[in-house]
Design goal:
elongated; DNA-binding; Rossmann fold; DNA binding (chains A, B); Arc Repressor Mutant, subunit A
DNA sequence: GTGCGAAGTAGGGAAAACCCCATTGTATAT
DNA sequence: ATATACAATGGGGTTTTCCCTACTTCGCAC
């Protein structure tokens, strides 16, 4: 089997040196190139066919987020594992949205890197435990914020049902057909929804529902 | 040290039996109660002080999502680990938003459960690798959707202006007043928007705009 | 210049949404 | 048992939205 071709992107030479040594100790890995910032990396990938990129996030000139975005735009099949020094990382979401396949702390154990490379190479994902916790914390934060800021009105079962259908784009007639009720009844439920939410027409109600995340995208 | 008090919630007695045996094999765990559905669980927790809940998701009467939501509303410090049989789970997001501390496959290894209990008991989170991959896949889906968004139809200046006002909740009349145009003209622009977006009424158009992030919250 | 397509402007009439009001059923309190 | 409250169901009639069509203006090509 061919070796897995890896490119390192990090602005600290010392880290690259150490990390290269570490990776070369895996018999199945070959470090084919290195870059010290995003721009350098972008020109590198034109000439090198890599399987996996280890990408630092904080870098001069062009940071890991933008570099990853641009690289994945051109080569969507590229597999990038993001590296970060500390955990207080605001870029986590951005990197995930950019489409990286993994996200790890630089301080991870050797075995973790081995595991990550194999998993990502095989088409999977790898995330450090710490990263997963961080993500989950973010979700929890979101949840708590939601609870605090909206004391949402309470809806009856029918109202919830109607609201769901409204937010699917159904008109009164369609909702009536779907629920086996008369249009008039649907109108009444909507009327109640208007009152409870402080809205005054369907469009407003839909906007309200989206803003308060009563319905999902 | 006191044992970690655990409650099991699952509608299959056989699974509960097996799982209880498994948990009891950990010297530091004590299963203090069991429930076979959400309602039963909700009345249970009034009388039992539990450290960790293992919560099945698919259950009759009251499913794991709602049960967790209600329980956490009353006892926000409750630590819930969600259990699921298969991976094709639409409830993942809902459970996370409900605020569970962990999410695992029932088919997980014994060591995983041990690890999960300890981590969650100590205030952390635990998610099965498979769950993490699933989450990451979802993020990737989001990313791809964003990319698709790029081939949006092109709107004229007036259309963009009208769309913005629509998404603020304005009716045709209000838009007409705000733009110093006749209602009829607004209607025509909306009509064009319908055609370009493949929608057929204002509500649909608003949903379209939100989904494609044409307008911001 | 003349023609042609795209954006912007409306009117008339049909359809849907909306408001005010009435009736029924069910649960809770006194 | 009776009163109260409210969810759920609808009717009549007004307002708003929506579709089809038409006219003007502007830029651009020939």
């Amino acid at each position: 089997m061919d070796k897995i071709r890896v490119i390192l992107v990090d602005d600290h030479k010392i880290f690259r040196d150490g990390f290269r040594m570490l990776l070369q100790s895996f018999s199945f890995v070959e470090v084919i190139a290195e870059a010290s910032n995003g721009n350098e990396f972008l020109s590198l990938i034109e000439d090198h066919q890599a399987d996996i990129i280890f990408m630092d996030i904080n870098m001069p000139q062009l940071d890991g987020v933008e570099a990853s975005q641009k690289a994945l735009e051109k080569y969507p099949d590229l597999k990038i594992i993001a590296l970060t020094t500390f955990l207080d990382d605001d870029y986590l979401e951005q990197m995930l949205m950019a489409g990286v396949e993994g996200y790890m702390l630089k301080s991870a154990e050797i075995e973790e890197f081995e595991k990550a490379i194999v998993k990502v190479y095989e088409g999977g994902n790898y995330f450090s435990d710490e990263i997963v916790s961080l993500l989950s914390d973010k979700l929890n934060m979101l949840r708590k914020k939601r609870k605090k800021k909206d004391d949402l009105p309470e809806f009856t079962d029918r109202e919830k049902e109607v609201l769901e259908l409204i937010c699917k784009g159904y008109g009164n007639k369609q909702i009536a057909e779907a629920t086996f009720l008369s249009i008039k009844t649907i109108e009444k439920h909507k009327s109640s929804l208007f009152q409870k939410t402080g809205t005054y027409n369907t469009v407003n109600l839909v906007i309200y529902a989206f803003k308060h995340q009563i319905i999902k995208f």
